[in-house]
Amino acid sequence: VTANADINGGIDVEGASDIxxxxxxxxxxxxxxxVxxxAQVGGALELNxxxxxxxxxxxxxxxxxxxxxxxxxxxxxxxxxxxxxxxxSGVTASSPLSVSGATSHAHFDATLSVTxxxxxxxxxxxxxxxxxxxxxxxxxxxxxxxxxxTALTISAxxxxxxxxxDIxxxxxxxxxxxxxxxVTANADINGGLDVEGASDIxxxxxxxx
Length: 209
Prior knowledge:
- The chain is mostly loops.
- The chain contains no helices and no strands.
- The termini are far apart.
- The relative contact order is 0.03.
């Protein structure tokens, strides 16, 4: 056929077909193209509609990548269940990762390594240990609400508090040797003072009862 061909019925081709120009499928509704076996695309694949993927996996080889371009935010979502990202050598996000929604959560079952800032607009919850190897800047209240036992343990380093400290229960200083408490300014004790050891007073002791 060297010119146009109009075929009103089906076409059954049992061999290979070489189409050197555009293949346009303009079916009004339903599936315009059904591929029951493998398909290979050697160039770019542009999809202007939604993709319904019913297979077990979507594989991208090591030399390629999956890219979504849009003027606004691009989305990868599930209509039910969670979205699971896994990689043999980890999952890398080179741009900001945003998790939003009233019931949205991000669960990390392995190590989360962040080389930039972490900006949490809502509650940041950790159900396991949090290991911070650098400084932490908390501009509001830090609340420790452990029901029992030690709520805060500092195994090394000093504590420098530039503001007032309100301790509603017992303050125990258990240093093995040396001075357990050093006060370089005045001290006001409104209750009793029980001293079980020796006291060295280098200046005047005034009792003004």
